[in-house]
Structure formats: structure tokens, C-alpha cells
Design brief:
The protein has 6 helices and 91 strands. It is mainly beta and about 1350 residues long. The strands form 20 sheets. Strands 7-8-9-10-24-19-18-12-13 form a 9-stranded antiparallel β-sheet, covered by helices on one side. A 9-stranded antiparallel β-sheet has the order 54-55-56-57-71-66-65-59-60, with helices on one face. The longest helix is centred in the first third of the chain and has 15 residues.
Length: about 1350
């Protein structure tokens, strides 16, 4: 061993710890591990990565009130560096980030202190972190925190997780689309053309290498040349959550190695740390040890694993460490000890107490029975009992605890009701503890072993196409991919039947009760049967069925006795679980125990059957994993010609509107169309029209055809994560969903626009997560149905779901009333919804809500969004991996082998069809045979958010048609509706009109259906506000008011007179700051455009208080009338002349662009020929092509953009977006643009003004320097989450910055403004400029 002392070298941007064995370099003050030098290797970490992506602490957080397990991903960097200890024996350094209220919404409200320690003669280094939240700070959720190291892929190829789980691993390149084929979820990839042929045909998935906390002590990687090991050693699990069986990630392809402290894997939202208002919290995570070792002989490289295990034992022996300097990490003599003995009393097994051999005994914060498996705020201390049940827990932190336990072989959980207070140095003997497991009578029969796992049940061989060779003939055979699909192979027609006394659970009980995938690719729930005989039955007695589940994922288990059709069932769990264990190759997740009363009257002498039905069937990964004691199961989720003479709907009827109420459905019928809805859920399951039995996708489950949905998250819970209560009226959040195909194509068919069509049956669903902020959608299902109006002229029906406190954490705290209306002689139907939240209910966030219709893909092929945005569309099958190649994000897919060859080489992306609210009034799909149009008409934007320029999705491949009411697209979290504690809220979304039309004359072009739909839209607008909705929350025209006036502009540097606000957007929105309307989403907004004289009139305004806002193309900034305008029923307010004075201090010296809140006037390049959408070739919206951000580096490969005022032309020389530059190594760098200009004379004592108007920003920071790159810049700070660049937009949220430029910083003749966009971790970071202007001092004339 080397004997040099530990040295600390502090540089300007880095800190180096060096003990002569290794050198560890960290960024200063960020605390990112940028380099580890050891054993002749200059850096063990991936040198091709940015320094910030090599070795780091990260966390995921979301605001309080949010739900789910995702949120804002934060590789948290320190802002302050300090030396804690520095001597010859030890160095400890600290990188802190301190929170204050100015950071609210930007960073999690935590003080973070990352520590790193290096000891003399130690072949490694330690790290720990102190998280602290003060009581008066905003609450939040914390789903995950960890340490990540990304090692060099050219060095580390052999991974070790356990003695029997180690192997050579594929390269990260093998997971790329050209070498790997994504499977049912993005983590799982089939290696089809790996760099090393030995891996061909294998599946790689990081979850295959997960470990339980009790076994997750040491893991890592081996490099063979030179022989070097990199190991992550966790000597204690006290700072982990969820107890000894909680599973966490370890190491995986990258090569990555992780130290997981907190995660929701295999548990879901139950294991998200949620702080409440007023709740302080502090926790120390770690220390963990990063251990490095080496050997001389390459042939002995694998012995590095044995050495790492020995080092782990040494670290455990030294725990708790004596060297960490923080007072928050107590040493051994500041801790306590507890001992005792655990016994079991089950009088149906023995009259004497039984020693609890190998029981898990632990201390965890006080809580309910079994709460330890969901506890994540405090510390836990666990051990196993010996042969006579004795246990000893040492080195326990001081505090209050309950003692918990569970014993293999017995169901249920033990908790000692006495709160145990541990003090420094205490030794507490709790004596004999007796656990009495649930038991009401003798065992009649049992299935399985009560060990919280399904490992003893039948685990099938994997599909030979999807294997990991490591797990062939392995004890952990359940870790193979796709085992859930084997159920349908084994039980293709009927479900599992288990006969007590004959069947063997090891062979005859499938390890997971999952959905069955049918031949058409849809899914169906499954019903398992347990058949058993009873010789005699006490009819007056009560039997007990004990069901212990090893995991559940969005499942509902229904139990019926001897009658498979009884409704309601004898017992239901309700919807339970988000463990996702099935998908993640686990064999257990969270433990659940249900005790079901079975009256003797339900049983018979002789043959009996228990029916176990798992009902949800929207995903192959839903289900439960069961183990039984007594009786238990486990289951694991254009071209236009002259108009035809008649192009209105040819279907008319004199029939009155009829309503047919069935047991499970409701049908509205007016003789033109029939609309079928599920009852009481209110899901549109069928639309019959023009001889087509159902316009909606009949291959989908009924719940997945036409529905309202939302994303929500509980708040004070969060949003940044789209927190989990996300309410959408839709199905997808930040994910891309592609429909898989499992059937052969049917015969080609003909239609007027495409000579041959191949129709496919919908198959599996492929989900690609697009970001860590993903939040699953929530379909709104009613719980009660009622008829609101029923007569010959109209039917209005209601599907409601009421909230009460018992649903907290399960459903969004909203009363929701979905309404559907059908009128006589109307070729369509209306829908609206009323959302209501009472002030005493929990706060929450609502990022999105919408209506979704999924049409038949064998019928609807032509989509129309606007006159110049309509086309035949690809099939959903074309987006599958074998036909499509995912691009930089999952929504964008290159069609490489589409069903229809005409689409080959095109890019499909739903965001290419987005629209601004002001233009998003009608869109939809056309079927050619028979000619039928399906249109979504929005007659008013009053219930939409974000104003007239807010962009929303419309229709896209599926075929899918959306009615968007609220979304964060093109604006980010700023557009998330956030209700605060004590804030009531109610809003009506809609009505919108779903319009159907057809043609009388078969010779007419079907595209006239689009013209007819536009005419119908104008009719609907004319009829707004509708008079027929029955809800008192939807006011009629007489109950509304009107505002009018004239807007003028006063800019003395343009004219001495007021200028009419020609074409101005003028609107009423809830009172707020200047420009707040573009982020406002709780209330209603009413907008219009001023005429050439600036006159405006806004009609049919709901009653309430508003500000009047406006912005005028051609002028920067926003207008707001400071007076609150109160609208009352029937009012007609004349505001007279309203004067806007735009920001202006002096004359214009020069300007770039047009102040119109868009970057469309700037240079938009041609797309890469490999990535085009034919619709947008030579199109006004050329910015909607894919990948334009990458063209910047093509145009400016070495130097950045330079714009010379007076010479350059912004239409040709100003790139539409200041993006990052992609370098040859695929990393990114910020860009610095230059504006060069001349000034004939400069007022050194004067003040100039630079006006920067941005059309959008996405995780960007714009720095401005004048005449020198060495000066301290003016900075926007990090702004924006609009994601406009990615989503083919040309604007998002508007930002205006007014920068003082002292005359002393300018010079006569040549000057340069440097515009630096610094953020550079993604190709999608950047800004779009709207307009730039330099103004001279107020008294100056034009100087240039």
C-alpha cells in the first residue's frame, strides 16, 4: 500500500483529492465527480461524456399535492464549496446548495450538503449527503435520490451483482435503434445487431439486475486491461427505505453503477417521500464507499469480485464510521441497542409458542402494522432472528420507533404497540415478544408458501426469442423478459383451474395472474378457479379466505364463491397497486393481505369453486402475484374543385331523440346516429353512423375508444413531475404510444385517394417514456348515472364521480360531472364537463385535461387540420420498430418500411399537427368508403387556457382526434393549473361538438366533407353560447355581459399622435400581472381582434372580475388595464379609448426581426432530406419539419452566427432558433451569436437600452455581453420549459427583457453584442428570438 498523505488541490473550476493510490477530481463548486485516476488509467469515468454526466448525485422531486412517481430530475450541483477536514490522514470536502424562497418552483426546497471523504491508504473514497427541509418551507414530494457513476465503455465490460449474477455485458451502442429493437417498454431492448455477435438475440434490461436491500451490499464492474475493479459498497441499509425486501437498481449497461437511497421501483407511489405543510425533515443518506481494486495478472481479474466482497465485510465491521465530520452522522457511542426474542402463537398449529426462526425484525418510525414497507422519511434498522427467535439490533440512531417483524411461514405483520425511545448508549431488552398471526379456524386447504414471494409457483421458460442467457437454469428464472405473455401460450382458450388435492402449485399455479393477450392484440381479464371438496358444511358458520398478494399493478381482484356471474362479487380489492413488478422481472413488490369472510351459506357439500378474477385489462403488465395460506393466490400491466351542389349530411330523420338505458350501457339515438356509452362510467364505446356499425376502434377495449381524461397531481404535492394526480381527458402524458401489429395484412382495398390500402389489426402497445417528468393519464369514469333531460327534442345525460376524504391520495379531489347531449335532427353530439373542488379539500395540480376519440384505423385515413394542412396519413403500424425508427424522442418516428410505400422516408410526429387556439376550431378525419367525416368542433375558446396563441394538439396518427382544454404543451409547468390549500375552484370545460357528415352524391370529392365541417363550425360559433345545456353552471347569452372600446398606441418616437391598434389581440382574463393571461389556466378568457381603427367588442362574457389585456403586432410588450372590470348579467360596458404605451426610452438605432411573438420571419432551413414530412415541403409552416435544430451545426460547423447590422438580412442570416451545437463526440456546447454594428458617436454618460423579446425558451440561459466576452454578463437566468424547438413550434411563451447599456460600454465605430446561450446538455435547449432592438439615449438621434 502507498503511504503518502492525503492531499487536497483546490483549483478555480476543480478540486482534486489525492492519497497516492487514486486521484478524485470534482467540479468546484458543483461537486460533480469529473475524474477518477487509478491504476494507470487517467480516468475511469466516461471521458466522452460531459463532465456533469460522469459521477453525480441526483434526485427527482415534485411539488406537494402531486401524485405518481415522476417529477423534476435534478443533478443537483453545489453553489458553495468548503473544506471540512484537511490533514494528512483525511480530507472531507462539502458542496452545498442552500434554498431560499426566491428559488420556489425552480429547485426543491431543501438545503443540500454533499460530502466526499478520502482517507490515507484507502483504495477508494466515501460520499454522503445531508438533506434538510425547514418547517416553514414549501412541502414537496421526493420519489428518488441516488448516486450515479458512468464508467468508460471502452474499459468496463464485465458486471457483477452477486456470485451467481455476473457476466460480460453488451455495449450501450447495442441498445440504439440500429442495433437494438425496443420491446414492450423502453428499458427492455432485443439486441438484433450488437457490436459483439455473442449477444445477438438476447434481451437487455436494467431491471433484470435489481436486488433486494438485504442483498444489495456490493456490486460493480471489472476492466480487464489493466485489471481494475470499480465497486459500490453500501455498508448499511439504515438510510434506505422500504425495509429489507425493497428492491432497487444496481449496475447496468452504460456501464453504470448506482447507489440507490430512495426509489419507487417495485412499490409505486406508496414509496414516494411526501412532506406535509409545516413538516421539517432532515436525513443523512450514506456514507457509501466507492472501492477500487486491481491485480497484476489479467487471468485473475475475476478475483477482484472476491476482494470487493471482503472489503464490504470490512466496511460493515467499521459501521457506523467514526470519521465523517458532520454532527448529523452519529458515531457508535451516540447510538443505542435493542435485543429480545420473537415467538409465534398459532393454536391451530401448536398450543405452545413457536420460535420465530429467521424472522425479519426491525425498528422503523412509528406507524401502522406493516407501515415499514411504505416508510421513507426516517431510518430503519433490520436483522434476522436466530434459531430460537432471538435478535439484536445495534447502532440504532436515537429517536422513537416501533418494533416490526414478519416471519416466513406465517401470514401478516407484527408490530409492538409500544413506542420505543432509543437514546445514546442505551441497551434495551424487550424480552419475549409474541406474534399471533391472523387465524379464525383450522386450515381447510392452502396454496403456496407465505414468504412474500411468488418464487415457489410455476415460472415458465421464456420465449426463445427473448432471453437473457444469464438466467437460463438460474434460481432467478423469473428475471427473464416477457414471461407475462407465456400465460396466453399455456392457457390459450380457458383460464387456470387449480384442483385442491390434485394440482401442484409448483407446476399448476402460474406465478402471476395477468391479462390474456388475444389473437387480435387486445387484452382481456382472467378468471382463475380453485376447485375443492367439502365433506360437510356448517351453513350457520363462517369460513375465512386469506389472500396474501406478493405484488399488484393497477389490478383489481374480485372473489366469487360458486357463482362466477354474481354482481357485485363477494369481495373486491378495488383497484390496487402500482408496483410494476411484472414488467420489471420481479417476483414480489408490496405485500398485501386480505381476509375475506365466506358465509357457510355460499358453500355446498361436495364440489365448490372459488373464482378469482383480475379485471383491468388495458395493459399486458397489469395483474397480481399471489401466494396463499389457507386459500391464496398471487398475481402480479388539398386540392379543391368547384363545390358540389349538396355537401351537407345526407342523413336526416324526423325521429325524436330516444334514450335506451341498459344494464351496462346507455344509448342516445336520434335516427341519424347512435351513441353508446358505458354505464355508469360514461365512456363512449360506440358511434353508429351512415351504415358503419362503429366509427370507433372496435379492436380496442371499450374503455379505450372515446373518453375524457386528465392528469393531476396532488399538490402541496407537485407538478414538475407531472405529479400524480394528473388529469387528462386523454390517454397519454409525456409518453409516445405506438400501436403494435401482430396480424398479417388483409387484402388490399381501393378508395378514391389511395390505390391500395393494407389494413392491420391493432396489436400490442409500445410505450416510450419521453422524460423523467412522465405522468400517467387518468380516464375519468363516472360512478353514478342520471338523466338530466329527456324529451323528443333533446337528451342530456350525466355521469358523475364524487370525491370524499376517504379517496385522498387515490383520486383527484374533484367532483366531476361529464355531460353528453343529443339534439333532434343534429348530425352529432355535444359533450362538456364540470370540475369542482371545495376549499377544504386537498390542494392539487392539473396539468392537462381533454377528450380523446380513437377511430377505426381500417376506415379513417385522411386527416384535416387546416386548409393547407391535410393529407393521407400513415397507419399506426408504421410507427412500430420493424416499420419505423424512433428518432430523438419517441413521438417522432422515421417510417422506414411503412405498409404504404408512399410514406417511406417520411417522419411522423403528432406535434407537427399542433394548432394555436385561435385556429383550432375544427379538425378531424375522413373515411372514403363510405364517405364519412368525423370532426371535433370547438365553438369557443373561453374554457381554454393561455390565450389565442397557446398551441395544442389536434388530430394525429391512430387515428386519434382530441379536444384539448388544458395542457402544458409549448409552455411547460407555467401552464399547470395549481390549486392552493383552501382554494375553491369550479370550471366548465366545453361544450364541444362531435360532428359527423357524409355525401349525397358518390361522384363528389370526399374532401368537401372538410368544407362542410368548416361551415358547421361557423354555425356552432353563431349559436354560442348554446341555449340547451341544462347545467346552471353554463350561463346563457342573457346571463352574460359585453365589453367594447378602442385600443390605440402611443409611441412618441414613431408618431406624435396615437396610432390605432390595428389587428391587436384584446382579451378579458382573470385579474393578474401584465401578461399573466398567457400563463393563466384557472378561469375563463375571452379574446377578439381589433379592427383597423383599433375598435374591439367582446361579447358573451361570463360574469366575474377581469382585467383587460392586449398586445399589438408590431409593438413589443403587453398592455393591461389596471382597473378590474366586473361583468354582470346583461351589462354592456364601453371602455372608450384605451392607450397602450409600449416600452421605449429612446430612438431606434437598429432592430432585428418583427415584434409579433414569433420567429417565423427568421431563416428556417430546409430539413435534412432523410427526415421530411411531405406536407411541409414548400409550405408556409416549413418550421414544422423534424430536426431543424440540427441544421444549425451544418450551417455553422465551426463558428457561430455573426449578424452585421445594415448588411445582413434577418430573413436569410438570422437562424430561427439559437440552439446548442452538436459536436463530433455527440455532446453539446452552448453557442454565442454576435451582432455587429457601428455607432458614429456615443454618449458615454448616456444610457442605451437593449430590448430582447423572446418567442420561446427551453431550459436556456441567455447571457449578454457588450464588446467583450470577458466581462460579467447580464443574464436571464435559466428560463423556460416550453419545449417548442422539439415540438416543431415557432413560438411558446413570450419573454421581454429590457437591458440597460451604459454609454461607457460602447465605442464609436465598431461594436459587438455577444448573445450566449449557455445551457448545453440537450439538443432541445435554446431560445427563439421574436425581436431585438437597440435604443439610443432619450435625447439622441439615430447614431448609426
Amino acid at each position: 500500500m502507498s503511504t503518502p498523505r492525503v492531499q487536497l488541490l483546490i483549483e478555480d473550476q476543480h478540486v482534486v483529492m489525492d492519497n497516492g493510490i487514486l486521484q478524485v477530481t470534482l467540479s468546484n463548486p458543483g461537486g460533480i465527480v469529473t475524474g477518477i485516476q487509478y491504476n494507470g488509467i487517467d480516468n475511469l469515468l466516461e471521458v466522452l461524456d460531459l463532465e456533469t454526466n460522469r459521477g453525480y448525485w441526483d434526485l427527482v422531486w415534485s411539488q406537494a399535492g402531486s401524485t405518481g412517481t415522476t417529477g423534476t430530475f435534478d443533478v443537483f450541483e453545489g453553489t458553495t464549496f468548503r473544506v471540512i477536514v484537511e490533514n494528512e490522514e483525511q480530507v472531507e470536502i462539502s458542496f452545498t446548495r442552500t434554498w431560499d424562497p426566491s428559488l420556489e418552483g425552480k429547485f426543491v426546497s431543501l438545503n443540500l450538503d454533499k460530502r466526499f471523504i478520502m482517507l490515507r491508504n484507502s483504495s477508494g473514497f466515501y460520499s454522503y449527503a445531508i438533506f434538510e427541509h425547514l418547517a416553514d418551507w414549501p412541502p414537496f414530494n421526493l420519489p428518488q435520490t441516488r448516486i450515479v457513476f458512468q464508467l468508460r465503455k471502452d474499459k468496463f465490460h464485465y458486471m457483477v451483482v452477486a456470485d451467481n449474477r455476473q457476466r460480460f455485458m453488451p455495449l450501450p451502442d447495442d441498445r440504439q435503434p440500429e442495433r437494438g429493437e425496443p420491446l414492450d417498454f423502453p428499458e427492455a431492448v432485443l439486441l438484433v445487431d450488437p457490436v459483439e455477435p455473442e449477444f445477438k438475440g438476447e434481451v437487455d434490461d436494467k431491471y433484470q439486475y435489481s436486488c433486494e436491500n438485504k442483498d444489495l451490499h456490493v456490486h460493480g464492474w471489472i476492466c480487464f486491461d489493466p485489471p481494475t475493479g470499480f465497486w459500490q459498497i453500501t455498508p448499511s441499509s439504515e438510510f434506505r427505505s422500504g425495509g429489507p425486501l425493497k428492491q432497487n437498481l444496481t449496475s447496468h449497461v452504460g456501464p453504470y453503477t448506482l447507489a440507490m437511497f430512495l426509489s419507487a421501483h417495485y412499490a409505486g407511489e406508496d414509496l414516494v417521500l411526501k412532506l406535509n405543510p409545516g413538516e421539517p425533515w432532515k436525513k443523512v443518506f450514506g456514507p457509501v464507499f466507492m472501492y477500487l481494486n486491481s491485480v497484476m495478472d489479467k487471468d485473475n481479474a475475476l478475483s477482484l469480485w472476491d476482494d470487493a466482497k471482503e472489503q464490504y465485510l470490512k466496511e460493515v465491521h467499521c459501521w457506523p464510521y467514526s470519521f465523517p465530520a458532520s454532527e448529523d452522522f452519529p458515531c457508535s457511542d451516540q447510538r443505542g441497542k435493542i435485543s429480545g426474542r420473537l415467538q409465534v402463537l398459532d393454536r391451530y398449529i401448536s398450543h405452545e409458542c413457536i420460535a420465530a426462526n429467521d424472522a425479519y425484525v426491525g425498528l422503523a418510525p412509528p406507524g401502522d402494522v406493516g407501515s415499514w414497507q411504505r416508510e421513507c422519511k426516517g431510518y430503519q434498522f433490520w436483522t434476522k432472528t436466530d434459531g430460537d427467535g432471538s435478535f439484536c439490533l445495534g447502532d440504532i440512531r436515537t429517536g422513537d420507533y416501533n418494533l416490526y417483524a414478519w416471519i416466513p411461514g406465517f401470514i401478516g405483520d407484527y408490530r409492538n404497540d409500544t413506542v420505543i425511545t432509543v437514546t445514546a448508549g442505551c441497551e434495551i431488552d424487550v424480552g419475549d415478544l409474541v406474534y399471533e398471526p391472523p387465524r379464525d379456524g383450522p386450515t381447510v386447504w392452502e396454496i403456496g408458501i407465505p414468504d412474500r414471494s411468488a418464487a415457489e409457483f410455476y415460472i415458465p421458460d421464456p420465449n426463445p426469442k427473448y432471453i437473457n442467457k444469464l438466467f437460463i437454469n438460474h434460481p432467478d428464472r423469473f428475471r427473464q423478459y416477457g414471461l407475462w405473455e407465456r400465460y396466453a401460450d399455456l392457457y390459450p382458450d380457458g383460464d387456470l383451474v387449480y384442483k385442491v388435492g390434485h394440482s401442484d402449485y409448483k407446476k399448476d399455479w402460474f406465478f402471476a395472474q395477468v391479462n390474456r393477450k388475444k389473437d387480435d392484440g387486445t387484452l382481456e381479464g382472467t378468471t382463475w378457479q380453485i376447485k375443492f371438496k367439502l365433506d360437510d358444511v356448517d351453513q350457520s358458520g363462517a369460513f375465512k379466505l386469506r389472500l396474501a398478494l406478493a405484488t399488484a399493478n393497477v389490478a383489481e381482484l374480485q372473489v366469487r364463491i360458486n357463482d362466477p356471474k354474481i354482481d357485485p362479487p363477494h369481495f373486491s380489492t378495488g383497484e390496487i397497486g402500482h408496483d410494476n413488478t411484472i414488467a420489471r422481472h420481479g417476483v414480489h413488490g408490496l405485500y398485501r393481505l386480505y381476509n375475506v369472510d365466506v358465509p357457510g351459506t355460499t358453500l355446498v357439500e361436495g364440489e365448490n369453486t372459488v373464482f378469482l378474477t383480475q379485471t383491468p385489462r388495458t395493459s399486458p403488465l397489469q395483474g397480481i402475484i399471489k401466494f396463499t395460506a389457507a386459500s391464496v393466490t398471487r398475481s402480479k400491466s388539398l386540392y379543391l374543385r368547384e363545390a358540389p351542389q349538396l355537401h351537407k349530411s345526407s342523413i336526416m330523420s324526423n325521429q325524436g331523440v330516444q334514450l335506451h338505458i341498459q344494464e351496462r350501457h346507455v344509448v342516445m339515438d336520434n335516427g341519424i346516429l347512435q351513441v353508446t356509452l358505458s354505464k355508469p362510467e360514461g365512456i363512449v364505446t360506440g358511434i353508429q353512423y351512415n351504415g358503419i356499425s362503429n366509427l370507433l376502434e372496435v379492436l380496442n377495449d371499450e374503455s379505450n375508444r372515446g373518453y375524457m381524461a386528465f392528469k393531476h397531481k396532488s399538490r402541496y404535492l407537485s407538478v414538475g413531475s407531472v405529479a400524480r394526480y394528473l388529469y387528462y381527458w386523454s390517454e397519454y402524458a409525456d409518453i409516445g404510444i405506438l400501436y403494435g401489429v401482430k396480424k398479417e395484412a388483409q387484402e388490399p382495398r381501393e378508395h378514391p385517394m389511395r390505390m391500395k390500402l393494407l389494413f392491420f389489426l391493432t396489436g400490442s402497445i409500445m410505450i416510450y417514456l419521453s422524460s423523467s417528468s412522465y405522468v400517467p393519464p387518468f380516464r375519468i369514469k363516472g360512478e353514478s348515472f342520471r338523466v338530466v333531460v329527456e324529451n323528443e327534442e333533446q337528451v342530456e345525460i350525466s355521469f358523475t364521480r364524487m370525491w370524499d376524504p376517504s379517496l385522498e391520495g387515490k383520486l383527484a379531489p374533484l367532483n366531476i360531472d361529464k355531460r353528453f347531449i343529443m339534439l333532434r335532427n343534429s348530425s352529432g353530439f355535444y359533450s362538456y364537463a364540470i370540475y369542482e373542488h371545495f376549499k377544504e379539500w386537498p390542494a392539487f395540480n392539473l396539468p392537462q385535461t381533454r377528450i380523446v376519440f380513437k377511430l377505426r384505423k381500417d376506415k379513417f385515413h385522411y386527416m384535416a387540420v387546416a386548409d393547407n394542412r391535410q393529407r393521407c396519413m400513415p397507419l399506426p403500424e408504421d410507427r412500430l420498430p420493424k416499420r419505423g425508427e424512433p428518432l430523438a424522442y419517441p413521438e417522432a418516428v422515421l417510417l422506414v418500411n411503412p405498409v404504404e410505400a408512399e410514406f417511406k422516408g417520411e417522419v411522423d410526429d403528432k406535434y407537427q399537427y399542433s394548432c394555436e387556439n385561435k385556429d383550432l376550431q375544427v379538425h378531424g378525419w375522413i373515411c372514403f368508403n363510405p364517405p364519412v367525416g368525423f370532426w371535433q368542433i370547438t365553438p369557443s375558446n373561453e374554457f381554454r387556457s393561455g390565450g389565442p396563441l397557446k398551441q395544442n394538439l389536434s388530430s394525429h396518427v391512430g387515428p386519434i382526434s382530441l379536444a384539448m382544454f388544458l395542457s402544458a404543451h409549448y409552455s411547460g409547468e407555467d401552464m399547470v393549473l395549481k390549486l392552493k390549500p383552501g382554494e375553491p375552484w369550479k370550471k366548465v370545460f366545453g361544450p364541444v361538438f362531435i360532428y359527423l357528415n357524409t355525401l349525397l352524391d358518390d361522384e363528389n370529392e370526399p374532401h368537401w366533407l372538410w368544407e362542410d365541417a368548416k361551415e358547421q363550425m361557423l354555425i356552432e360559433v353563431q349559436n354560442w353560447p348554446y341555449s340547451f345545456p341544462a347545467s346552471e353552471d353554463f350561463p346563457s347569452s342573457e346571463q352574460r355581459g359585453c365589453v367594447n372600446g378602442r385600443l390605440q398606441v402611443q409611441d412618441r418616437f414613431i408618431s406624435d399622435y396615437c396610432i390605432p391598434g390595428n389587428g391587436a389581440y384584446v382579451g378579458l382574463a382573470p385579474p393578474g400581472d401584465i401578461g399573466s393571461w398567457q400563463r393563466e389556466c384557472k378561469g375563463y378568457q375571452f379574446w377578439t381582434k381589433a379592427d383597423p381603427e383599433g375598435y374591439f367588442s367582446i361579447n358573451d362574457i361570463r360574469t366575474g372580475d377581469y382585467n383587460l389585456y392586449a398586445w399589438i403586432p408590431g409593438f413589443i410588450g403587453d398592455y393591461r388595464n389596471d382597473e378590474v372590470i366586473t361583468i354582470t348579467p346583461g351589462c354592456d360596458l364601453d371602455l372608450g379609448d384605451v392607450i397602450y404605451k409600449p416600452p421605449r426610452d429612446g430612438p431606434t438605432l437598429w432592430e432585428i426581426g418583427i415584434p409579433n411573438r414569433s420567429a417565423a420571419e427568421f431563416y428556417v432551413p430546409d430539413p435534412d432530406p432523410k427526415y421530411i414530412n411531405e406536407l411541409y415541403v414548400n409550405h408556409p409552416d416549413r418550421f414544422r419539419q423534424y430536426g431543424l435544430w440540427e441544421r444549425y451545426a451544418d450551417l455553422y460547423p465551426d463558428e457561430d452566427l455573426v449578424y452585421t447590422v445594415g448588411t445582413s438580412d434577418y430573413a436569410k442570416d438570422w437562424f430561427f432558433a439559437q440552439v446548442t451545437r452538436k459536436k463530433d463526440d455527440n455532446s453539446y456546447q452552448g453557442t454565442t451569436w454576435q451582432i455587429k454594428f457601428k455607432l458614429d458617436n456615443v454618449q458615454n454618460s448616456g444610457s442605451y437600452k437593449l430590448r430582447l423579446a423572446l418567442a420561446t425558451a427551453n431550459v436556456a440561459e441567455l447571457q449578454v455581453r457588450i464588446n467583450s466576452l470577458e466581462t460579467n454578463p447580464w443574464s436571464t437566468g435559466v428560463i423556460g420549459h416550453d419545449n417548442t424547438i422539439t415540438r416543431h413550434g415557432i413560438h411558446g411563451l413570450y419573454w421581454l427583457y429590457n437591458i440597460e447599456v451604459p454609454g461607457s460600454e460602447l465605442v464609436e465605430e465598431d461594436n459587438t453584442i455577444f448573445l450566449t446561450q449557455t445551457m448545453a446538455t440537450s439538443p432541445f435547449q435554446g431560445i427563439m428570438y421574436d425581436y431585438i432592438r437597440l435604443e439610443g439615449p432619450p435625447s439622441s438621434n439615430s447614431d448609426n
